[in-house]
Amino acid sequence: MTSPQLNGPSRLTLVRHGESNVTVARVIGGRITCSGLSPLGVAQTEALRDRLAETDELSADVLLASDFARAIETAAIMRPAFGDPIAGAPVEEWIEFGEHDPGPELDGMTFDAYVERFGMPDWTGDPDEVIFPGGETTRAFHERVERGLDTVGQRFAGKHVVIACHGGVINAVMRSMCGLGVTGGPEFRATNTSITSFVAPSAPGWGWRVERYNDAAHLAGLPDATPPSENL
């Protein structure tokens, strides 16, 4: 958030989705071709759900998801852990928290085909560079995420909002909260189903506090990723 407001949410928690089918298949999975979670991704999210049900550590008031299938499925699996009224209500899907949009032409293209056609993308350079022809620039992506955060702040004053989203979204929010530019400097690469939380400013002139980042303790005992031999 570029301008944190005291009347926004009291706490913001971002949960990265579980491992996705498109990651296992090594394709660029935009909202068109995303087909949800891999079997390991389901197991990861179930482990998160069981952890949250046991500890009640998030005590969320609102659960949102991006409009990608992998985030929607993640939210649906973990939703029962929050109890009523979240457990009994549909999850709101927000386009603002979708992953970096590759555009319709590249959505579903394999990574190898992309590199062969365009070369390796440079995520650290010019934020206005067209990495995905027909899709979003890095700056446009970050601006979309910030618009979503501003709307969340207006709608859910004083609430704890949990959002099932994506690694790129978490990186964008972390960079904003830490006062970093859109590109350059450190990158924040969140683990699947990890928890990243922020506490709202408690007084005028204070910034958001990063409460925790990339907390994935519930994944102990699970594989890091689906082995290549099991690719879907």
Polypeptide structure, described:
- Helix 3 links the parallel strand 2 and strand 3.
- The chain is of the alpha/beta class and 232 residues long.
- It has a single domain, classed as Rossmann fold.
- Strands 3-2-4-1-5-6 form a 6-stranded mixed sheet, sandwiched between helices.
- It has 6 helices and 6 strands.
- The protein is globular and about 50 Å long.
- Helix 2 runs parallel beside helix 3.
- 30% of the residues lie in helices and 14% in strands.
Layout of secondary structure:
Blueprint: E1 11-16, H1 21-25, H2 39-55, E2 62-66, H3 69-78, E3 92-94, H4 111-118, H5 138-155, E4 160-165, H6 167-177, E5 195-199, E6 209-215
Parallel strand pairs: 1-4, 2-3, 2-4
Antiparallel strand pairs: 1-5, 5-6
Helix pairs in contact: 2-3, 5-6
Rounded mean pLDDT is 93
Class from secondary-structure proportions: alpha/beta
Poorly predicted residue ranges: 1-6
Q: What fraction of the residues are assigned to beta strands by DSSP?
A: 5-15%
Going across the biggest sheet, name each strand in turn. Answer: 3-2-4-1-5-6
Number of domains: 1
CATH class: Alpha Beta
Number of strands: 6
Note the gap between the termini: 37 Å
- Gyration radius, rounded: 17 Å
> Which of globular, elongated, flat, extended, rod-shaped describes the shape?
globular
CATH homologous group name: Phosphoglycerate mutase-like
- Please work out how many helical segments DSSP would assign: 6
Helical residues, percent: 25-40%
Task: Give me the strand/helix succession.
Answer: EHHEHEHHEHEE
- Please summarize the sheet with the most strands: 6 strands, mixed
Second CATH tier, the architecture: 3-Layer(aba) Sandwich
